[in-house]
Amino acid sequence: MRSMSYKTRLVLILGAVVLAACAEKGENVYRTWVGPDRSNMAIVTLQFGPDVKDVTIRDRELRRSDYGTIQLVPGKYTLHERDDANIGITIRPVLVDASRARARGELILGHTYVLHAGKSDGKRALWIEDARSGEVFIDTR
Questions:
Q1: What does the alpha-carbon distance between residue 54 and residue 48 come to, in Å, rounded to a whole number?
Q2: What's the pLDDT at 109?
Q3: Is residue 76 included in any domain, yes or no?
Q4: Distances, alpha carbon 35 to alpha carbons 4, 32, 38, 109, in Å
């Protein structure tokens, strides 16, 4: 029996890589606005950490298997996780100092954050950290 040619093996490997990439969980981005793209300085990017389950925002359930990131425009939001954990988010429409924002539990336009989940005092809790510095901005633990 003749062995596979180099080209055939390459096509099979590339196909497997493409399928694996498509199967990656949470690749989609949910935007909280309708219309054209906005500059990164006009939004907040919130990525789901590894322990976050399905999340509901503005009556829209974002399945963890489908979504891994939410892009938010200025406003107030409440994210609910499946186990009744929730977290309130405020984003002001102007740039603010990081220490003031952190003290008031606000996120800053142009920044990327990570939503984390875990247990605290036997209950499910959520918290948000700055993706770059690791500083906690909003904490429900």
A1: 10
A2: 95
A3: yes
A4: 49, 10, 9, 18
